[in-house]
Batch of 4 targets.
Target 1
Amino acid sequence: MSSKHQKTLALLFADPIRADVNWADIIALLRHLGAEVSEGSGSRVRIALNGIRAVFHRPHPNKETDKGALRSMRRFLVEAGVKP
């Protein structure tokens, strides 16, 4: 795993939850981990990783992901067997 992906994973699991994690970096990490990422309607993004599926909303107009979405992403990654 590249240092950029390691940094993104560390930011996702940081306490307290961060409010400055770039959505594009999260998607790049997920693809590196082997996730299937597909666009849904509107701002929805479908993600499947290790048999676990979830739907997230792409942040807009900002590029940073909010704390609630990061909390959900953290839960998704733990359920999919990914830990920092």
Target 2
Amino acid sequence: MHRSAARLALVAAALFLACHCAAAQQTPDAVVKQVVDGVMQRYLAETGVPGAIVGVSMRGRRYFFAYGSADDAGTPFSPDTLVEIGSCTKTFTTTLFALAIDRRQIAATAPAQTYMPSGYSLTPAAQPITPLELADFTSGLPDDPTNLPRRLERRGIRHYTSADFLNWVAQWTPATSLPAPYLYSNAGIGLLSYLVMTATGKSWAEQLDAEILRPLTMRDTALRPTPQQRQRLATGHRRNGGDAPPWPIFAWYAAGGLRSTARDMVSFAEANLGHTEVNGRPVPAELTAALQLAQKPIYILPNGFNQQAMAWVANLGKDNPNLHPVIVKNGGTVGFSSVIALNPSKDLAVFIAVNRSGARPTAKGMEIARHLP
């Protein structure tokens, strides 16, 4: 090797060693901040979203990072800012379904008609649908009911009622044989919640509170926030940047109606990671079992490598061992985008909420999970 080339190689090696040693000397807190800031600051610059909140749980230690503004007055996000979590709500519903399965209150592969609310019958072609097919999106039900009012504000449950929804379900006929090919469906998870309510004899809200929210001390997760909680609600924005109206409480609210905070969602994530204690309280063993059942992969999705569970999706990360496995669920409303990502092998969870629709934070949650040690 030429003398000058050898000198350059030595310098490069020294620089690499110095950088490596500096990184090794960083505290875990500094590493988490560096990774999250690196991903989120670039993301906000590229998308122009008004603001975001990120919650991370890494080996039982929690971190929260706020970016931009939660409202038009410039109020910063905090771990206790309420956001619309949209379809992340589905993971709460499938957990309640899994609890009912484990308690033998509902059979996952029984005909859905067995648990239909009194007075409603599925069409003959739809009667073979099972609760599990509703949970894993193979029921054939479309994303939303096809007879909704045109205006968003007229779609709320006060105008399009539970009876309207169930009457539509009762008249619907699948277009293919069952189980149907994968088709994401708010209506399907919504119907699943009505079946679970029939099977257990308890309302969805009652079960949610008793089985998940109170055991995990999730005080700020609700369909209808209190007046005090509404003071902490972030302002959502449409894709074009304009202020968005509050997301209606639909008749299929169990598929997407919850409001929550980063602090609460990190608590939920830790329970999903299998922590035996959350917020200083023991997690009931049957809740842990239900959370794990809801995450269990059922079939491979059309992309050939992700696997569908009960609402959750397992991203196998076959091209990157640092992303194996990550279990994800995203959510979106007319004003918010969100994602919760779990990596059990790292004892790591990431929650991101952004106050603009269509902002697609899912890839960013997975990127953060990939780069954290």
Target 3
Amino acid sequence: MEVDSDVAVIGAGVVGCATALALARRGASVTLLEAETEPGLAASGTNSGILHTGFDSHPGELETRLILRSAQLRDPVLEALGLPVLRCGALLRPIAAGDWVSVRELAANAERNGIAVELRDDESLTVPGESVTDPIAYTRGLAAAAQNHGAELRTSFRVGAMSDQGGSLRVEGEGNERIRSHAVVNCAGLRADEVARMGGDDSFEIYPRKGEFMVYEAPGEALEQILLPVPSEGTKGVLVFPTVDGHVIAGPTAVDGEDKDDWTVRPQARELVASKASELLPDLLGAEPVASYAGLRPAGRGVNYLIGASKAHPGLVNVAAIRSTGLTASLGIAEHACGLVAEQGVQLGPEQPLEPAPASVSEEPWWKRVAEYREVA
């Protein structure tokens, strides 16, 4: 069976769902394709759930611009979709000798990005705008809103081929389903390079960067802020943060790998995370985690935030190498992708008001759902 649509969006992670919603709100007929049984069960559902302000992002870069734009777009979406959010702010304290230099640099960086922070007399830095959400509910809320605006969601659709059909693209699923569209937006996360190659584009490569997390019962008094370490070159380090369901999570690690299907938590991760986390929250020293999970971030080799029309195939727009800030930047990425789709000749109208929709929040904590799903998978 073949279905026609203006745009096929491959990947129903948070970026794909946001993009499908943005396109549907502008009048495009959209088919959203997801290889898993539900949206948000891969990288989007296995992150921290933190909505970053961008205080520490490099000024002027595309990633930073999209993070800052998302902050302008987010609150109306959270309200309309009834999505959970914990507006707790963050605290960054110097621990090692010389950390105060990095903290002051971060404060100056925040000022360049227009983010409100406070540098205290003890050289700690508070970032009141940082917040936490349920990443699965956030992703599925966007997917449901996209459907409310006319998008079609097809799950268990694994892309097997892509071909040029004289002015349009045909995406074929492994189950012999076919989608014919004027433009294809590749939001396939870990598989974005594989999807691109189906369209003749081998210009980039994605590898998995594993981030392992430990989940704890809230020790003593409830944690009221995100606790941030002073970042080092190449990683933001292990942080400690509250969840919307009242637990505390510590992580992530950062382990570059090759296996895009290895969602396991390494035996040594527990001790590695605990040793770093207890520096920020001493109550975690010796605490037993109630769960653990690993996320695989789709990192690009030598590239970050690769967003643009493919030079190899007309009509193909790649949205790839979106690493740990994908949840935060998703709304800005989606808006940016709409402009790229319009450049491919898809007629987009003015953005329609977002239709309110109930939040898809499970009674079971999101971190438990993804941990159990990945154990079974």
Target 4
Amino acid sequence: MNLNRKYSSLVALLAIALSLSACSGLPVHNGGGGTTASVSVTMVADTLPANPSILSFTVSITSIVLTPTSGTAQTITLNPARVVDLMRLQSDTAFLGTFASIPSGTYSSVTAVIGLPAQITFFNDTGSTITTLNQAALTPSCPNGAVCVLSVNVSGGPLATVAFTVPATGAVGVGLDISLNKIVSVAAGALTISFSNANTLSAFTLPRTGSNLAAGQLDLIEDVTGVVSLGGTGVTITAATATGRGSLLASTNANMILDKDPSGALCNNPTQGSISSCVSSNQAASMDAILKSDGTLTIQEIEPLLTTLQDTVEGIIISVSSPTQFELIVTDLLPAATNSRISSLHIGDGLIVNVPAPNPFLVDTKGLPVESTVPGTLANFQGATDTTPLRPGQTVSAHITSFTAATPPTSISDTITLRWTRFTATPVTPFSANTFNLSGFPSFFNASGTALAEDFPGTPTTQNVTNFDGIVDASGLSNTKPVAVRALFIENSTNTASPAFIAAKVRQH
């Protein structure tokens, strides 16, 4: 696939509440005296357009406005602005913040202001060249079959209409759901991206009906990666500056799950309830957190990724060109603490990765019992030393040892680790509690027909289980609605692995 880049300016108002800051007490301009409480806001996304096939779509949020049915709107300024990749929200949830000192009363909507940057990366599967973006000519155009990266000029402001009451004391939770097919459309070679279309945004009170959350839990915030900072009874994960995702603070607890790293060198024998027995400050880690009904976060699961910060790029594979080379679209970054080679990369960028002599490939199971349950599937990837097990659609992380600026840039990696592919597909009967079939994969995937997915049902406090949203387990799936999945995608040499997907998250709206 060719990778093309185009640029245009951005001016936008968007009615969504988007922030990855876990901080409360952000600047709030309220309407005066009276009682106040906290409002926690999360966001998900669903309903992809038929085409093009989107790989990444990042937007930057500068402020949030909560509008009451009467009285003064409450404006929260985010400084710095927060950047989110909407494609992660197919399966994951963005924590938009717990905002303190919100005047009590009835509210009807949430609005946010978008600033630079906004970028979309997509595979042109329309069958023809895309020549315009929002009625402006693309120079150069985006050929059919190419992966294109566009800085977009969007306009409009859909309103998240939801009735919620801020109590006299305590907290309330609100979830927002953005429909991507209302934003992105293409016809006759013209790509249109607009946030002003009707029904772009819907909202609901937390917890969402049909989840497997326990009492006192509002939502799950998963696979937050970054640098660890331990302090008292809390753990802060800070994402790379280039991602714009900010920090997430969660408290430790006796029931948190402590998992070893993908190499098996870290967190092998943790002490239950002791965070310091698993991770240390300045390490890289991945964390899942539970948003509680009081607006605070507590750790559900945490795993170290790296002992020390090293240049590491995570991304979706879009092509495999030889036994020693593949290309990916960047979805996450972990730069080295000093003298980083990858400082010029951003989410949505393309990167060619060369693996002339890698260490044996790793698989990040995040504690799921993959080795004991489906060892044959795991063996299709783990331990490989060339690109044979790699497939378009897989997400991998690569430790970068050499980097050359180009279009796209090229790199050399000595360590490849399989991580979580996020996608939406169609569930196919039969369903059981721990297996289900999928079809209708994204067009850039090297997957077709029907594939089996494995999951591990339980409650969010159970050790190493699949998290479900909208259903209690896979037996509750409906084949009349798409399902969003975050899973390990592993195939064999004939693309007939069963299962081909091991699910860490399953969401059906």
